[in-house]
Amino acid sequence: MGHVVHKFGGSSLADAKKIQNIANIISGINETVVVSAIGKTTRMLQQSIDAALKVQAYDVSLKQILSIHLDIIEKLGIQKNHLDAILREDIEQISQMLKTISLTKICAEPLKHFILGFGELWSARVLNAYLNSQSIHSEFIDASDVLYVDDSSFPVSVDWEKSQSLLNASLENRETKVHIITGFIAQNLEGQRTILGMNCSDYSAAIFAKLLQAKKLIIWTDVAGVYSANPQVVPEARQLQRLSYKEALELAYFGASVVHPLTINPMMEEEIPIYIKSSFDPQNAGTIITHPLKEPSKAKYWIKGLTSTADVAIMRLQGAGIIGVSGIAAKVFSILEQHGISVMMISQSSSEYSICFAIHSKMANKAVRALEKGFKAEIDKGDIEHIYCDKGYALITAVGDGMRSQPGALSKVIKPLADAKVNIHAITQGSSERSITVTVHESDEALALKLIHAQAKNAPVIELAIGIIGVGNVGKVLIEQMQNQYLSLLEKNLRIRVVCMMNSKRFIQGENLLLDNWHEALQSPEKKANLALMSQSLLNTPVAQKVIIDASANLEVSEHYLEFLDNGIHVVTPNKHANTQSMEYYRELRQVALDNNVSFKYETNVCAGLPLVNTLQTIQLCGDTINKIQGVFSGTLSFIFNQMNQGKTFVDSLMLAYEKGYTEPDPREDLSGMDVARKVVCLAREIGLSIELSDIDVQNLTPKALQDVPLAKFLKEIKHYDQEVTDGLLAIKQKAKALHFIGEIDAKGKISVGVQACENTSPFAGLSNADNMVLIYSDYYCHSPMVITGAGAGAEVTAAGAFGDVLSLVNRM
Predict the structure, then answer these.
(1) What structural domains does the chain harbor?
(2) Which pLDDT score, from 0 to 100, does residue 298 have?
């Protein structure tokens, strides 16, 4: 079981009953609990500091803090003498500090941070004591002893290496499996206690999750996950099952109550999922924040979440004098940064006449003064007309990975507002394309949220349930291609779900294995390989269109295609065995597919991803007649003969291909010509010839004496036949420009597979490297053939061809 890090916020620790809930949530095995201060303790500590600075009664808040904590300790029924003494001692210490602040009317940032950090120390000690009283053996850890940061600026910079070392040393001699760690606080470069930043307990939890290499981080709050909008404003708001890290980051940045923005990056880097759950309703699944591929299989919404921020001021700096002047925008934002003013949104007109940005209204007057001072010379000269500032606005941001590169996404945000006569005062789209922000008047905020939320639903999504047989070179690459394209296809309303998978030893199934660690799952000994289970798993999936992709080269698997097709399952395969078995089986496959209204797709049977099979089918459907097909169908033999055409001997060319990994592990499989023969049979049958593999006379390039010897002996002795084979091949070439191993079919059934000489006028004479080339002569292409050429082998192009066959199924639906 992996390590789990829990983080409980102040609302989850606000009273004794809520702390008792925590004990019911924690399993007591291999867990770390990071806590915020109880209730509003940090806020009350800040109030006491503010009171001291104003020379007001600062002890009121302190007494209230002490009373709350003592009341919780008593109601929890834990032994209180030790905790009581710590609390009273700390409160007295804080009181002395506040007295100094009151006398000097100064509170340096380090002192302020030291005082604000007490709340987490108290809550962690209280929770630790209660858990131990309930026989959940835990230990208290002060984060300022193990977490090392540079707080010279905020947000702080974590020293990961030193923190890791300190934490490892702290945990080394601890026997308990539950650790209670203070959130929010750390140790700075001077060895003093500091804070990570305001509201940064979530960030603390993320830091410790990363240091502990946690399996997951669960953030417990007072709400059951993240909602698509504020339910108090939008009653139709729905709880989100999943968010990508970047979606959560966008929502958090724009003010949604998700997690602190700093929390997300460490988890995204380590791919540790974040769960947002309610400590008051722990059975609710909440919201998971994880890798983008964790897109929910039943997502219907292109906007994941809407968030709004009120009390916003729109500022505008404009003037003809700034058109084309470089550095104006940089100067504006440099001035704002120097004065600690955060910019929430930026928009600049294409004419460069105006720069518009949004800030919190409370900072507006400060911003105006700073900019007027910074641009005094430009204002005096008239280059800048004025610094405009309007208050009373709200920012509404729509966030969703589904918005990326989606035509019409912007119109879906602004059109419902225009229809309702809600004026948009400024608009911007994030560079990530997963967020769009509009500025409306505060009085229109609630209406705008509801209108956009109502437009968030996607069009119906087509789903393909897929089973993959064979996860060797081609299968692995195919899965990677599907994973890489998953979100892109989802944006096009196509969801591919790999619900089962099988190699030669194991079978696995799941909701969508593209989103899981299928490598690890296939190591499980629980379910052995079973073709019947593949069919059953697909048939049990509530999706209309089901596909089996056979990425193996296994004869036995190909013999099950009839069963798959008969069950209404499409079959896509680069496996040539089915199409080169008996003509009876060949015809039966097609008839069963037709009877069950499913497809048997095998473009990659010949020349990998080159569009050869589909081309032959299409031009014949259009009324053309194929008269002859010639082709260099083997990438390996293409490479060997291209080397010979450049002057190398046969064996030198063969061994170079072997060293480069172009051949099969046993090169004789290529030299036998049988791979080419199978491809020729596929094509011959494709143009209507009734032919068996045994009907073809195939030239075998392996010397007869070495055809049946062990591989090691073949590799050792082939050089002794170099002169003999080379001379024989050159005798075929004579004065021709090139030699190639060619498969040839004519419409009368004449078929040859072997070495041919290619004159200067032959397209084959221009082949290079390991490319394939196919010439198609037909009634339409009678004077010069259709030429299809390119890479005809390799895991990437073969997988892409099979993937293309899968996607072509969508067009028939």
Answers:
(1) 4-222 (3.40.1160.10), 305-454 (3.30.2130.10), 462-608+801-811 (3.40.50.720), 613-793 (3.30.360.10)
(2) 44
744, with CB counted inside 10 A (0-12, 13-18, 19+), is: middle
The yes-or-no verdict on residue 80 having pLDDT over 70 is no
Q: Would strands 570-572 and 494-502 be described as parallel, antiparallel, or unpaired?
A: unpaired
pLDDT in tens, 233-292: 888 788 888 888 888 888 887 767 778 888 999 999 999 999 999 888 888 999 999 986
**Phi and psi angles of residue 639, each rounded to the nearest 5 degrees, phi first:** -65, -45
Phi then psi dihedrals of residue 695, to 5 deg: -80, -15
This prediction's pTM: 0.55
Catalytic residue among 546, 679, 713, 748: 679
Nearest to 120 by CA among 51, 207, 193, 189: 193
Q: Residue 624: count other Cβ atoms within 10 Å of its Cβ.
A: 16
**If DSSP states are collapsed to H, E and C, what string results for 131-166?**
HHHCCCCEEEECHHHHCEEECCCCCCEECHHHHHHH
Residue 460: per-residue pLDDT: 41
pLDDT band at residue 723 under the 50/70/90 scheme: very high
Residues 6+ apart with CB under 8 A from 742: 630, 631, 632, 752, 753, 754, 755, 756, 764
How far apart CA 440 and CA 312 sit, in angstroms, is 10
Which neighbouring-strand residues pair with 157? Answer: 150
**Residue 679 annotated among the catalytic residues of the structure:** yes
